[in-house]
C-alpha cells in the first residue's frame, strides 16, 4: 500500500501525527483507523463473494483484477484457444516481403521460381514481374514511367 514512502517520509508523518493529535490521543487514533480499514476490507470481500455467488458456478474462477484491460488481454493471449501461435509460426514476414520485393524489381527469387514451377501458370507474381521488366525496357533512357495513382 505504501511502497513508495521512504524512511524519511515515514518519520515525518509520525512526527506530524504526534504534533496534530498529541501523544495521549495517538494510540486511540491508530486503533480507530486500523479498525476502520479492517471493516472496509471485510465489506469489500463480502461484496466480492456476493457477486461471485450471483454470477453462478461458471464464474467461480473469476477475479476482479481481470477487469483491468491489460490483465484481460494478457490472460486471453496465454489461453491460445484460437490457434494464434500456429498462425504466427506459419507466417514468415521476411520471406513474404522478400518475394514481393523480388517480384517488383523483376528478380527471380528461389522461392518464386519454385512456386511458379509447381503452379505451372505464368499469371502469378513472377509473370507480373516479367511484364514489368518488359515495360521498363521499352522506356527510353530519359523517359519517366507513367504515374499510377492507385499504386501510391
UniProtKB/TrEMBL annotation:
UniProt feature, compositional bias: Low complexity: 111-131
Gene Ontology terms: biological process: protein transport by the Tat complex
Feature: compositional bias, Basic and acidic residues: 138-152
Subcellular location: Cell membrane; Membrane
Location of the region described as Disordered in the Swiss-Prot/TrEMBL record: 104-152
Membrane-traversing stretches: 6-22
UniProt-listed Pfam families: TatA_B_E
Recorded topology in the membrane: Single-pass membrane protein
InterPro entries referenced in this protein's UniProt entry, alphabetically: TatA/B/E, TatB
GO CC, one annotated term: TAT protein transport complex
Chief localization: membrane
Superkingdom per UniProt: Bacteria
Entry's family note: Belongs to the TatB family.
Role description: Part of the twin-arginine translocation (Tat) system that transports large folded proteins containing a characteristic twin-arginine motif in their signal peptide across membranes. Together with TatC, TatB is part of a receptor directly interacting with Tat signal peptides. TatB may form an oligomeric binding site that transiently accommodates folded Tat precursor proteins before their translocation.
Subunit structure: The Tat system comprises two distinct complexes: a TatABC complex, containing multiple copies of TatA, TatB and TatC subunits, and a separate TatA complex, containing only TatA subunits. Substrates initially bind to the TatABC complex, which probably triggers association of the separate TatA complex to form the active translocon.
NCBIfam families: PRK01371.1-1 (NF002374), PRK01371.1-4 (NF002377)
Protein known as: Sec-independent protein translocase protein TatB
Organism from which the protein derives: Streptomyces jeddahensis
